[in-house]
Amino acid sequence: MKAVVVGTSYGGMEAIRNLLMNLPGDFDLPIIIVLHIGSNTINSYISQLHHKTNRKVKEAREKEPIRRNTVYFAPPNYHLQIESDFTFSLSTDPKINYSRPSIDVLFETAAWAFKDKLIGVLLTGSNNDGAAGLQTIKKFGGITIVENPETAFAKTMPSSAIELFEPDFVLDIKNMAEKMAELGK
Amino acid sequence: MLSDKPNDTNVSQEVMDTKDIEVDLLLQAVFMKYGHDFRNYSKAHLKRRINQRLQLNGYNTISELQNKVLWDKTFFRTFLQDLSINVTEMFRDPEFYLTFREKVVSDLKTYARLKIWQAGCSTGEEVYSLAILLKEEDLLSRTQIYATDFNKNVLETAKQGIYPKKEMELYAKNYIEAGGKGKLSDYYTSKYGSVLFDKSLSKNIVFADHNLVTDGVFAEVNLIFCRNVLIYFDKFLQNKVLKLFNESLTKRGILCLGTKESLRFTDFEQSFSMLDKKMRIYKKLQIPKK
Ligand SMILES: C[S@@+](CC[C@H](N)C(=O)[O-])C[C@H]1O[C@@H](n2cnc3c(N)ncnc32)[C@H](O)[C@@H]1O
């Protein structure tokens, strides 16, 4: 595996924190995240997460090469894309499903770049962004994991994916971290 | 083909590779026939736009789309529109304008005559924002602004300076946060759900068709605004366009990029100093750093 992409909206801050804190310290795959956060800045959340998890956490910059041992967030108000040379690019295209950054955009372009070396994770959220993108990841041979809607803070986002196709795993956060650790070996 | 369609089975390596070939051929065809060069634009972005067009028109392959693009000029205009993202707003990133007032304006006041190039001006919201700021700082009358874009449709809108009234609520808010000294509504008149910006603002603006990829230097300028355009280019093309900017700027000229763009990871990091790191305002150095 080469990378993990994660999408989430309502309840996402908490869910991401949980997921990262449950991952073993030697989990070194790059983790690339779209969190719907409106037009607010994400800086304070990023530094908080860095202190809590002891991981390198940052906003993704355009043209930046994707590195191991790093957690990246899409900058608010820009779509985050992955290029085939494993660098980031940004776009100010119109909102998709009322969202910018859009989870679908990250997932789809990540699937094109990483193909079957990608893990896609869709967490809590109150809209259906990410479901189509996660399905694309599966079609390109990647592994797809969806948070268990029963235990998720908001179930619409994970449920939309499960309605659209059959993800490889439906798990609550703790088991998800274990599964990722196993896949990341 | 086009196995990204819902319910299709898995995409094989062969399909992926073939599609990449098709994308390259399509861009080559567009360049050879129409002279528009998208070959070094961000591929991920282009592929998304191309896929959307395939879905809208119900084409199965990019080759089908290429056929249409080559033989139907009207369709090509539509496709060109697909590839050009014109999303913009007035006083986008208000903090940028605030910083510009604090850190750049005093510098500009030392010039008797001022030339500004705004590259990728889209439908003009940004250039009217700049004109308003310059007017409030008593600089507009001594300034010549060149506002350019490679999309003729958006230039037409920019020239007219007419925008939907419903946008003004957000723009007025941005304007205040950007350090505006009056009211945004001082600068336009409203009519039937539209607003028309004051002609005194555009008196010193020339709107012109200019392609950053294929056209060259056309004037020596003191300041370049190019915001949210470079993000669509790959590294090679960014360097090419930055070279054009570097050559177009006067000594100690100023370059303003979008707040998520930067000279980092480019060939020109050493040719500029940073006037404001966060807002990506750069100043050309007389002698590049080593
Ligand atoms: C996202 S808009 C940015 C508008 C404005 N500068 C802003 O920041 O709000 C990008 C603009 O760049 C223009 N553009 C893209 N490629 C170009 C090229 N090769 N030459 C000139 N303009 C180009 C597009 O037509 C579009 O209007």
Task: Please characterize this protein's 3D structure.
The complex is a heterodimer of chains A (185) and B (290). Chain A has helices at 12-22, 43-53, 103-114, 131-139, 156-164, 173-183; strands at 3-8, 31-35, 56-59, 70-73, 79-82, 88-91, 118-122, 143-147, 169-171. Chain A has 185 residues and is α/β, with parallel strands linked by helices. Chain A has one domain: Methylesterase CheB, C-terminal domain (Rossmann fold). In chain A, helix 1 packs across helix 6 (173-183) and helix 4 (131-139) crosses helix 5 (156-164). The longest helix of chain A has 12 residues, at 103-114. By secondary structure, chain B is an alpha/beta fold. Helices cover 42% and strands 18% of the residues of chain B. Chain B is globular and about 60 Å long. At the A-B interface, strand 6, helix 3 and helix 4 of A face helix 2 of B. The structure holds S-adenosylmethionine (SAM). Residues 84-88, 92, 120, 122, 126, 149-151, 154, 211-213, 227-229, 258 of chain B line the site of S-adenosylmethionine (SAM).
What would a concise description of this structure say?
The complex is a heterodimer of chains A (185) and B (290). With 185 residues, chain A is an alpha/beta fold.
Record keyword descriptors for this entry:
heterodimer, A: 185 residues, alpha/beta, Rossmann fold, 7-stranded parallel sheet, 9 strands, 34% helix, 22% strand, B: 290 residues, 7-stranded mixed sheet, 3-stranded antiparallel sheet, 10 strands, 42% helix, 18% strand, binds S-adenosylmethionine
